[in-house]
């Protein structure tokens, strides 16, 4: 890719981009892509996952460690961990509850390979869990780690749901920044941002009537994307039936683009951010806008990943491609059926 379209990746001047969701800056150093790579090379994902493994606790019909038999209806919550409480005179008392949710009965399938109707069921289940856990917990974090490169130890398609009685760091940052923006500008930050990106069409990866996927102006990870609704929505359960259908469609289209980029089942970590829940359900949360982050680690190919080390850890987050270059690459390929 980077050889064929070499002119697109000529050295660009280094510059900083502001991330309004985190009140921080990202250093864009696109000239780094001209450096020869002699670092670590990852093994490409193996394409030998069995459709059903009776020893896999996430497969339907298998027996889990606690003796329970995994359910056959999907999507399903197949594992759950009880509340964990940490109480100490010098520590905050925290409550964390976690679940694992399986998307599909087959282990050798991923979200981009599922049908939109199947993805829609996943979305509905996500919304149900926000309602169920959000009645008690301040924050409900839905996230998916896909691929061994992202630390996923089980190939079966699934996500995790963690609920806590506190706002985690990223949520607290997003809360402050979005609240400040609304007070200063009279409009939710991501509502305004989605409209501006839709008009500019510089970083739009895929869009439909209800949703927009962009490589955010402030992206840190190489092929990072941001999934945004076009109207003002606080939380997943607030989506209409039509918006949920559109969401299933655009998720499939986005994730297919990822898989096609390096012709590999693309690893990533993704997660939903919506307005806080629990006691916040009774508060004015109009500064919030529902959105999902996708953070893939791959940089140059299916076997070369981005490392956040050295300067990135000790000084400033840094990326090796401009978001506009990434958008071009993701849009190069037609949808592979």
UniProtKB/TrEMBL annotation:
PROSITE patterns, A to Z: GAL_P_UDP_TRANSF_I
- Please indicate which superkingdom the organism of origin belongs to: Eukaryota
What residue spans carry the region label Disordered? 37-62
* SUPFAM superfamilies listed in its UniProt record: HIT-like
Report domain Galactose-1-phosphate uridyl transferase N-terminal positions: 13-71, 99-168
| Coiled coil location | none
Which transformation does this protein catalyse, written as a reaction?
alpha-D-galactose 1-phosphate + UDP-alpha-D-glucose = alpha-D-glucose 1-phosphate + UDP-alpha-D-galactose
A GO cellular component term found in this entry reads: cytoplasm
Q: Does the keyword Secreted apply?
A: no
Pathway membership = Carbohydrate metabolism; galactose metabolism
List of catalytic residues: 158 (tele-ump-histidine intermediate)
Q: What InterPro entries does the entry give?
A: GalP_UDPtransf1, GalP_UDPtransf1_His-AS, GalP_Utransf_C, GalP_Utransf_N, HIT-like_sf
The protein's Enzyme Commission number:
2.7.7.12
Instruction: Tell me which family the UniProt entry assigns to this protein.
Output: Belongs to the galactose-1-phosphate uridylyltransferase type 1 family.
Q: What is the protein name given in its UniProt record?
A: Galactose-1-phosphate uridylyltransferase
Origin organism is Sinocyclocheilus grahami (Dianchi golden-line fish)
């Amino acid at each position: 890719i980077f050889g064929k379209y070499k002119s697109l990746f000529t050295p660009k001047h280094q510059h900083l981009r502001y991330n309004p969701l985190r009140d921080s800056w990202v250093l864009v150093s696109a000239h780094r892509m001209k450096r020869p790579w002699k670092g670590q090379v990852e093994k490409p994902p193996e394409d030998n996952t069995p459709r059903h493994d009776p020893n896999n606790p996430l497969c339907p019909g298998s027996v889990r460690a606690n003796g329970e038999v995994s359910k056959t209806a999907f999507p399903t919550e197949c594992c759950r961990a009880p509340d964990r409480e940490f109480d100490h005179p010098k520590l905050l008392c925290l409550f964390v509850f976690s679940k694992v949710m399986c998307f599909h009965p087959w282990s050798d399938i991923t979200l981009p390979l599922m049908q939109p109707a199947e993805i829609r069921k996943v979305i509905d289940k996500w919304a149900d869990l926000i309602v169920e856990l959000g009645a008690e917990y301040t924050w409900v974090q839905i996230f998916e780690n896909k691929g061994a490169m992202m630390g996923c130890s089980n190939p079966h398609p699934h996500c995790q749901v963690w609920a806590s009685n506190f706002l985690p760091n990223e949520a607290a940052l997003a809360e402050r920044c979005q609240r400040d923006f609304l007070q200063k500008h009279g409009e939710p930050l991501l509502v305004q941002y989605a409209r501006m990106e839709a008009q500019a069409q510089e970083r739009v990866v895929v869009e439909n009537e209800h949703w927009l996927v962009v490589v955010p102006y402030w992206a840190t990870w190489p092929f990072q994307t941001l999934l945004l609704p076009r109207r003002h929505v606080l939380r997943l359960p607030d989506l209409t039936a039509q918006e949920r259908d559109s969401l299933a469609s655009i998720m499939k289209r986005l994730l297919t683009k990822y898989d096609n980029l390096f012709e590999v089942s693309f690893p990533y970590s993704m997660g939903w951010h919506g307005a806080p829940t629990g006691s916040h359900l009774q508060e004015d949360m109009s500064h919030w806008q529902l959105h999902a982050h996708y953070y893939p680690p791959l940089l140059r190919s299916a076997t070369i990943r981005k490392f956040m080390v050295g300067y990135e850890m000790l000084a400033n987050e840094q990326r090796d491609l401009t978001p506009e270059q990434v958008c071009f690459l993701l849009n190069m390929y037609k949808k592979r059926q």
